[in-house]
Amino acid sequence: MTLIARYPRIAAWGISLALIAVLTLGGMQALKPLEPKVPAGLSHLYGVIVAVQQDSVFELRVQGQTKTHWFRPAPGSPISIQHLLRHLHERAGTDVYYRATSQGVWPAWIAD
């Protein structure tokens, strides 16, 4: 207690810093339930989006492969057509997390 009495500015700074840290961590934990639910065991590809259709079905070309892969946003996934079109326009590298099925168009949960 004598240190707090001797150095009140340093004590106030330390208490403020601790309070900010506690509130930040509490806020992060409070927002966690709002994250999209992504199933475990998804496969991953990294490539460039080369085509986007009106129904948000998109084509991904992986470097070093001649075959392209087609994906559709899975129900409940946070993938938007605007985001896909931005990646198409910028030719940006895109990470796609998907579930491989026997069908030709695979459901994607994340495309960023």
Structural class of the helices, strands and pairings? Answer: alpha+beta
Strand order of the largest sheet: 1-2-3-5-4
Averaged pLDDT, please? 89
Global shape: elongated
**Residue fraction in strands:** 25-35%
* Through-space gap between termini: 52 Å
Rg, rounded, reads 23 Å
What is the helix tally?
3
Percent helix range: 25-40%
**Count of extended strands:** 5
What is the succession of H and E elements? Answer: HHEEEHEE
Low-confidence stretches: none
Major beta-sheet overview: 5 strands, mixed, barrel
Features:
112 residues; 5 strands; single chain; 29% strand; five-stranded mixed β-barrel; alpha+beta
Short description:
With 112 residues, the chain is an alpha+beta fold. Helices cover 35% and strands 29% of the residues.
Describe the structure.
The structure is a single chain. The chain has 112 residues and is of the alpha+beta class. It contains 3 helices and 5 strands. The protein has a 5-stranded mixed beta barrel with strand order 1-2-3-5-4. Strand 4 and strand 5 form a beta hairpin. The chain is elongated. The relative contact order is 0.18. The model has no long low-confidence stretch (mean pLDDT 89).
Layout of SSEs?
Layout lengths: L1 H5 L1 H24 L11 E10 L5 E4 L6 E6 L7 H10 L2 E6 L6 E7 L1
Parallel strand pairs: 3-5
Antiparallel strand pairs: 1-2, 1-4, 2-3, 4-5
